[in-house]
Hints:
Elements: H1 2-11, E1 20-24, H2 25-28, H3 33-45, E2 48-54, H4 61-67, E3 71-74, H5 76-81, H6 86-101, E4 105-108, H7 114-122, E5 127-128, H8 139-147
Parallel strand pairs: 1-2, 2-3, 3-4, 4-5
Amino acid sequence: MVERLEKQLDHHQITPESLTIELTERSVIERNTVVLDNLQSLRSMGMRLSLDDFGTGYSSLHLLSSLQPDEVKIDKSFVMAMRSDDLARQIVRMVAGMAPQMGMEIVAEGVDDPNTLTQLKNLGIQRFQGYLFARALSVSDLLARCSSGSQGLQLHPSDPGPAIVSPQAG
Length: 170
């Protein structure tokens, strides 16, 4: 897997440092030697690791401690529910406070409206993903965006807060 990815990066002239690999909790719950070796190889190439859909699967502090991802993505189910659910709001607040203390960045998924964006910014979250910024991109659109030097999307030119794009389509 690592060799194939390395060839694709070289072919498309993308530096490994510009790539973040998203891992679902389920994909790393059984941390066998092959998985750990692959993750170590990806890190040694300069890629970042992101724990996707955090809070929906097998979340544990042990997983955060042993995997030590560079980034944690708060699942959209919590982000969307925090508008009307105090417990969801508290969970987002807890993760937003905990992850930076552990040296991890936070990405909030499911940011689909300006009010949610404001609430998340007030919690100190600075990276966002959702329909408010863009629909999912096809691989070809993502590669075109990467090759043009784009580093994410902005809600408004006056709002330089970074956002991320998820290549889920195509």
